[in-house]
Design brief:
heterodimer, A: 167 residues, eight-stranded mixed sheet, 26% helix, 33% strand, globular, B: mainly alpha, two-stranded antiparallel sheet, 2 strands
Chain lengths: 167, 178
């Protein structure tokens, strides 16, 4: 019995490490990024969230992300067809925002942007990052899939981004 | 009943136009922010500048109203009280909304520039207060929308049912009797 009590947590820990290794990397953006979450919408569109391995390693639940953190959000309105890619970077404790199109051409220069800030204020508790709970959990649970019940391009309800132990 | 002074009428309809533009910018931004991020930023920056313009126009309008000694249509006392309260609430909301909107972004360390020229003073970084300001801005915006609807319905009611030509007093084409 004692042996099982010891084995199960070790197995769970090992399995978690394997899942964490399974995070899909991409070097499309000139630096290695890993997909830590996917947000599915009811209309079939989805967004993929990516960050660097260093950030995944440093992220701690309830703590702000470190300076220099870069996060990407890829938008897909059809499977496999990349739309706008949003980029955010933390500089001196403040978030800067930018975007480029699917071909990598810069659309919005990465700097403080009123349009991004005004919406991300809703996520002030999670360091202005809606998917911060998923980012915190991904190193342990692997890529997190979230489901948004709003179709189109409307911002999702905050409850969409909650990560439960069963994810 | 004499029409409102020409300047007040002009300021009224100019405010109505600006508020309509502000609302359309907010709705359009929701539709375009992912596909056209640059347009989205332009809309929000314009929203900020037009908000400041609305604040200025409203303060000017309030001053003109006080100076012109405008009288409300003769009607029952409680209707007059309701009309006064409605007008005052609209003035307050039109002044408060831009200020809260400014506080929302300034509290996040955002450098606000009106029409790309005039820099507004910054505020100490305070995300919690910025979040409260953001919620208040949205709620006050909804309240303003509801009250404008009520204001339009009240004007229609007085003009059509109550026999008081209050809408005609505010029309740009209203003639001032000597």
């Amino acid at each position: 019995m004692n042996r099982w009590l010891f084995t199960i947590p070790v197995f769970a820990f090992a399995a978690t490490l394997v899942w964490a290794q399974d995070l899909k990397p991409t070097d499309r953006y000139g630096s290695v990024f890993k997909v830590y979450a996917k947000v599915d919408r009811t209309d079939g569109t989805y967004r993929r969230m990516l960050t660097t391995p260093e950030v995944l390693e440093a992220a701690q639940s309830g703590q702000p992300l470190p300076d220099g953190t870069r996060i990407l959000m890829e938008t897909y309105y059809r499977p496999g067809e990349l739309g706008t890619v949003f980029h955010k970077q933390k500089v001196d404790g403040r978030w800067t925002y930018g975007s480029f199109n699917g071909q990598g051409e810069v659309r919005l220069e990465t700097r403080p942007q009123a349009s991004c800030l005004s919406c991300h204020t809703r996520a002030a508790e999670t360091d202005f990052t809606f998917t911060k709970p998923a980012l915190d959990a991904a190193p342990h649970l692997g890529e997190i899939t979230l489901t948004c019940d709003r179709n189109g391009r409307r911002p999702c309800a905050l409850s969409t981004y909650t990560v439960t132990a069963s994810e | 009943m004499a029409p409102y002074p020409p300047l007040m009428r002009w300021l009224h309809w100019f405010t109505a136009f600006l508020v309509l533009v502000q609302l359309s910018f907010v709705l359009l931004n929701r539709a375009v922010y992912e596909v056209y991020p640059v347009l989205s930023e332009v809309l929000i920056q314009a929203h900020i500048s037009l908000g400041a313009l609305i604040l200025g126009v409203t303060l000017l309008r309030f001053g003109v109203r006080q100076w012109s000694n405008v009288s409300l249509a003769p009607t029952r006392p409680f209707v007059r009280r309701a009309a006064r309260s409605m007008h005052l609430t609209l003035y307050v909301l039109l002044c408060v909304l831009p200020v809260i909107g400014y506080a929302h972004l300034a509290l996040l360390g955002f450098d606000l520039r009106l029409f790309g020229i005039v820099s507004l003073p910054g505020l100490p970084f305070n995300p919690a207060l910025a979040q409260t300001a953001s919620l208040l801005h949205s709620s006050a915006g909804l309240l303003l929308g509801a009250l404008i609807l009520l204001h339009v319905l009240a004007a229609r009611f007085h003009s059509k049912l109550d026999g008081k030509p209050v809408l005609r007093r505010m029309l740009p084409t209203a003639k001032v009797r000597n």
